[in-house]
Amino acid sequence: MDIETLTRRYSLGYRHHLFETVLAVHADCFEWMEMAPEASIHAIVTDPPYGVKEYDVDQLEKREAGNGGVWRIPPSFDGHTRSPLPRFTALDEGDIDRLKEFFLKWAELALRILRPGGHVFLASNAILSQPVFAAVVEAGFEFRGEIIRLVRTLRGGNRPKNAESEFPHVCSLARGCYEPWGVFRKPFMGTVAECLRRYQTGGLGRLPDGTPFCDVIQSERTPKRERDISSHPSLKPQSLMRQLVYASLPLGKGVILDPFMGSGSTLAAAQAMGLFAVGIERMEGYFEESKSAIPALAKLEVTLEHWDLPTGAGVKGVQGRLPMELSGE
After folding, report:
1. For the chain, what are the domain ranges?
2. What is the CATH number of domain 3-52+91-318?
3. This prediction's pTM
4. Which string of b and e fits 29-59 if b means at least 16 CB within 10 Å?
């Protein structure tokens, strides 16, 4: 595998941009996934928009105007202005049904393009994870547990609306201090060892020091230096994404897909770790931003637990595995 082969196989006639080891494609992911080569992707790592309405044009216009809509505009305090957050508790029954239909269709397409044994890492939240994960399983995936990202958020913890002074010691919802990532696997025949030999999938990568990849990650809110690079409201930190992309390819070989690329944090993490990846983004603004955001994020040196050296595009090879140049398909 090389970047030219990656482009030839996965650009599919859409506008695209090449980087060192990753490819960004401007397309609707449903259309792209219907056309992509069957059983060719080794892993999917993505933070989806939930297909409800937070990235509909009218909702983005409200967010930019500071009117909110489905986006909750939190107050400024401690000298900092907080980024808007989607108000998933505002979704009605029809929205939840739409959510289930969206993820069922999406998961069916994901099942088509993944190799047997390929894993999906799917970001969610405590409110929506149950219907989302159930839809993915209904499509035919095995549920393999969750990765719990420990991070203090601004979601929840509010006093009852319009009755704050009357009930000062009550919060309507627990303050969110974790983010669940669903882990799913495409079914395969035989043993994990046989799947690894044939498809380079079926398991998760151990850490460079040989310890198992764990399902709880002590994380951080996305640092300012990364938010200065990308304006995407759901930007995940490189300290998290580099661990996930590394674990998703157990042999350090193959292609990672992010079908909801945004401005490219998953692709930046893959490039920083010397891995191949493809990202799909339907919104032109974020696709254009990714052209500068991906290389800038990938170049950042980020120290991870169990890694002897900082990770980043300037660090050659992937610790504990073959360098990228020696990795086959």
Report:
1. 3-52+91-318
2. 3.40.50.150
3. 0.86
4. beebbeebeeebbbbbbbbbbbbbbbbeeeb
